[in-house]
Write a structure and sequence with these properties.
Layout: E1 13-14, H1 21-33, E2 36-39, H2 48-62, H3 66-69, E3 85-87, E4 106-111, H4 130-154, H5 162-165, E5 177-183, E6 198-203, E7 209-214, E8 221-225, E9 230-233, E10 248-252, H6 254-259, E11 269-272, E12 282-289, H7 303-311, H8 315-325, H9 337-348
Parallel strand pairs: 1-2
Antiparallel strand pairs: 2-10, 3-4, 4-5, 5-12, 6-11, 7-10, 7-12, 8-9, 8-11
Helix pairs in contact: 1-4, 2-4
Bound molecules: 2-oxoglutaric acid (AKG) and fe (ii) ion.
Length: about 350
């Protein structure tokens, strides 16, 4: 099958400094085969200094005692409500069916403020760096918009702003979340104990695109390759000799896969303890980009998606997406981005209503 990846494929590093049709096609090819791509860091769109300052801020924040961090616990009013604030160690499980315990990690979620509003209430020391955080969120969003625009070109959607306008956060609220992650060093197992092997359970992301930032020397991310039923490690910098800065890892989320009739792939991934680094702590940051809440996920116009859907090639992927949403077979309904996220969360957390 043309869109099935083979074990020798590696995730490409794409230079998007030009928005040519050729670059757009490279982005689409990676998004529709691996569901993952690297974007060469041009040093401007997301300044490397901001990335390292954000990692430093994250380190300072997570070093604090739990009592202090719990003041801004996830979902609490003090932290700004649903999906904002601190997730404690083992406070969530990304793979509830495959794991007995929650993920051995902590997180802090920061939402994108609705138009004309300021950032959610933030704890110290994050609060003292709100200009950095806002700038970082904005530059992440700029990069997402550029990638979406390249997909727009390659998919030959007649409206050149089809995806970008539906992700324009100045127009309304969205589910976009920026997340700092901390994976503490693993404790030494006692004699009879097996060492923990998973740091973040197998999952797919929910939104349109995810940008992932990691640190050299802190691997662990693996993606699931269905064709071979294996887990493939994703290097932090696939080409250290030619790339001074690690490229930015991008992956497609469930919503964009669903929206494109299964043409773009939302690939299952996880974070595992790896060989020598098994004991070490690990930091990462993820920017989960979502469309505006009221964006309707109706058929994406244009010949490419239409041709793909008519060919029936997306059937299996789309069925998987519909399953993740709890949609009944044969029932077609247009969801908004907000309904998609609510359904996705409901199925994951097995909520009743
Ligand atoms: O920490 C990582 O490298 C990946 C985290 C991740 O996949 C997620 O939070 O969705
Ligand atoms: Fe993820």
């Amino acid at each position: 099958m043309a869109h099935e990846s083979n074990p020798n494929d590696t995730i490409p590093v794409i230079d998007i400094s030009s928005s040519s049709a050729e670059v757009a096609q490279q982005v689409l090819d990676a998004a529709s085969s691996h569901g993952f791509l690297f974007i060469k860091n041009d040093g401007i769109t997301i300044p490397p200094k901001d990335i390292s300052d954000m990692f430093e801020l994250s380190r300072q924040y997570f070093q604090q005692p739990d009592e202090q961090k719990s003041e801004f616990a996830i979902h609490s009013e003090k932290a700004g409500g649903i999906n904002r604030g601190w997730v404690k160690m083992q406070g969530e499980s990304l793979d509830p069916e495959g794991q007995k315990q929650g993920d051995p990690k902590e997180a802090f979620n920061i939402g994108t403020p609705p138009p004309n509003q300021s950032l959610q209430p933030l704890p110290s020391p994050i609060s003292t760096s709100s200009p950095l955080i806002s700038r970082f969120q904005t530059s992440c969003h700029t990069l997402c918009t550029r990638i979406l625009t390249l997909l727009n070109i390659a998919l030959q959607i007649p409206d050149s702003d089809y995806f970008s306008s539906r992700h324009d956060q100045s127009l309304g609220p969205s589910g976009t979340i920026f997340r700092m992650l901390y994976y503490p060093a693993s404790r030494k197992p006692k004699h009879s104990e097996k060492r923990e092997s998973i740091r973040a359970g197998a999952h797919s992301d929910y939104g349109s695109l995810t940008l992932l930032f990691r640190l050299p020397g802190q691997p662990g991310l693996e993606l699931y390759q269905q064709a071979t039923n294996t887990w493939i490690p994703v290097p932090v910098n696939p080409s250290p000799l030619t790339l001074a800065e690690p490229p930015i890892l991008v992956n497609i989320g469930d919503l964009l896969s669903f929206w494109t009739g299964g043409m773009l792939k939302s690939t299952v991934h996880r974070v595992a303890f790896t060989g020598d680094e098994a004991q070490e702590e690990r930091y990462s940051m993820a920017y989960f980009c979502h469309p505006l809440d009221d964006a309707a996920l109706e058929a994406v116009p244009g010949p490419v998606i239409r041709g793909f859907v008519e060919s029936g090639k997306g059937g299996a992927e789309l069925e998987r997406q519909r399953e993740r949403l709890g949609l009944q077979k044969g029932v077609e309904e247009v969801l908004t981005a907000k309904q998609h996220l609510d359904r996705r969360l409901k199925v994951t957390y097995r909520l009743k209503n």
